């Protein structure tokens, strides 16, 4: 029996690509998902057919991507994409897609995903001290996707990174994701909040100390984070709050790649990748003599700003859905948001960013008297004050959806072109009919 006979007998769709992401083969089930016959697109790069395909990413980094939710030609399905290895080298990929025929199937799959996510987090935590990777960042806004792309690019280079952003916007999530994307992923990720300790305690945590170095010191001494993070990543959160004199000692470690324990004479080599984070303007701190300029240039070889949630509103609804799903599992109860709640949460400015949004969703789930989350379930901060936009300034949700669809179509047309043939390909890639495409973009594009 030939391999292709086996593939054809499967209900799941199977796609094979070579090392350059070109289509080698797919079975009849996969053909029904994408609306093409094999002879029509064999040999073409997969992203020419599906611009959002993750096959090139899997081939590039050799890491599988599993349980990806997709919609194609009005069909909902999950995709698993795996690299194909030969003599330790990636020589292609195999994708398996499974159709979700009803909401119950999707629910079961999502519950399974949740368990897989927990197992993965536990495994990561046991091995290198992290819980997150880029694949776990819930987002759909161009700003967030651009930030992730920059973070992935710099992760592969051994430079120090400064993450800037408001409290609650996900700086440690990005720090852990950068570590897990880097060559240091198998080594420790060690984090400390510089604002949580006074100068003496922070110094002893960073540098460690020898036996009898000070009153109360642990017998036998203690290694510092410069030692425990060796070969990996040291994450200094709220570095702006580090004592000015201690900043000079950190600068020397970064310059010399050596340090001495408190009370010690021996110089110890260190090999760390430093990721720092702050939620203040460090340039202003430099002007006020609160932060050293020379240290700033050492830690900010690559500054990366995490945008606040109010500047990436497209992420709000997906995040609401994600945290609501967690609440459903915890409370063993299904919930839905009313359109009024979605609109109110979409328009709110979220001064506490993603952390505040998560807490708000949990609060709503606890306050709900039924499976429906209404305006009455919202916390006071979303019901009063200047954070809530006036009704006359609210753009209807269906209008926002139309604008989002139009932007996605325009982006796809930029890829395929605005000729008739290009529009046909764009419509097929988006999973809509050509007439629907024309209707959604308006007559100005026809």
UniProtKB/TrEMBL annotation:
Keyword Transcription part of the UniProt annotation: yes
Keywords on record: ATP-binding, Nucleotide-binding, Transcription, Transcription regulation
Domain Sigma-54 factor interaction: 137-366
InterPro entries the record matches: AAA+_ATPase (IPR003593), AAA_lid_NorR (IPR058031), Homeodomain-like_sf (IPR009057), HTH_Fis (IPR002197), P-loop_NTPase (IPR027417), PAS (IPR000014), PAS-like_dom_sf (IPR035965), PAS_fold (IPR013767)
Keyword Ubl conjugation attributed: no
A single MF term (Gene Ontology): ATP binding
Residue ranges of every copy of the PAS domain listed in the record: 1-44
Biological process per Gene Ontology, one example term: regulation of DNA-templated transcription
Name listed for the protein in its UniProt record: PAS domain S-box protein
Organism from which the protein derives: Coprococcus catus
